[in-house]
Structures are given as structure tokens and as C-alpha cells.
Amino acid sequence: MLFESDNPSGHKLLMDTSVANGGDNEGHGPKALMLSSLAGCSGLDVVSLLKKMRIEIADLKIEVTGELTQEHPKYYHTVTMEYHFYGGNLVEEKIQKAVDLSVQKYCGVLEMFRKFATVHTAVHFHTV
Fold it and tell me: Is 0.70 topped by the overall pTM?
């Protein structure tokens, strides 16, 4: 049940399932990878936009959770993305603009999710 996947860049990752489902839990679950891809896509957008705006942050964490349908094939019907920005002098208006641009215009993975799920977003600012 353990699969190795690669991409054109040559990077590899392992996919597996839980012991209860016949695997050894030695890799990422495919559905969880979808949520990771969503966070990565939007995170790359946001950080790139903030650099162009010359806005500094100390850290960004994106928590993505999804609710699966009850019937097979199970898929995410609702997804929540929570953006957590950390820094000493956060420019909230510009950071929100960067998130909005990613969510509404640039993140292709998020656009794919919209084809089958309701996507909610929230932005949180943490002064450090």
C-alpha cells in the first residue's frame, strides 16, 4: 500500500494509508496531501505578493481542515483555511489584500477545490 510519487522537478514523496485500512502509515494520505497542496499554493502566492509589496512578516502558518462526505466516494465538501500571520509590525490591510488576491485570483488549487467544496477563509494576526 506504500506508493512513491515524483514530479518533473525530481522530488519524491511517499503515500500510504493507516494500519486500519491495510497500510503501514509510512507516508502522506492522498486526501491530506490535497489540503497540503491548497495551503502550499496559497502560501506561495501570499508570500510572493507580500515581497512585492515590501511587507515583512516573521512567519506565516496556514491551517487547512476539510470535512468529508459520508458516502463513497468520500470527498471534501467543506474546507476551511485559516491564515496566521506573525510579526512585530504587521500591516494588516496589505496582508489582507495579499490573501484576498490569492483566494480570489491566483491560487489555481483553490479554484479546483471550489468545483466540489465550499471554501471558507479567515485571517488572524499575531504580534510577536
Answer: yes
Measure the CA–CA gap between 84 and 105, rounded to whole angstroms.
20
3-class secondary structure, 63: strand
Model confidence over 96-119: pLDDT tens digits? Answer: 999 999 999 999 999 999 999 999
C-alpha 35/C-alpha 71 separation (Å) is 20
* Domain of residue 103, residue span: 31-127
Number of domains making up the chain: 1
Residue 76, CA distances (Å) to 23, 31, 37, 65, 105 in order: 22, 8, 14, 9, 21
Q: Cα torsion for 126, 99, 109, 70, to the nearest 10°?
A: 60
End-to-end CA distance of the chain: 43
Write the CATH number for 90: 3.30.300.20
Answer whether residue 41 is part of any domain: yes
Task: Decide if 98 is inside a domain.
Answer: yes
List 87's β-bridge partners, or say none.
127
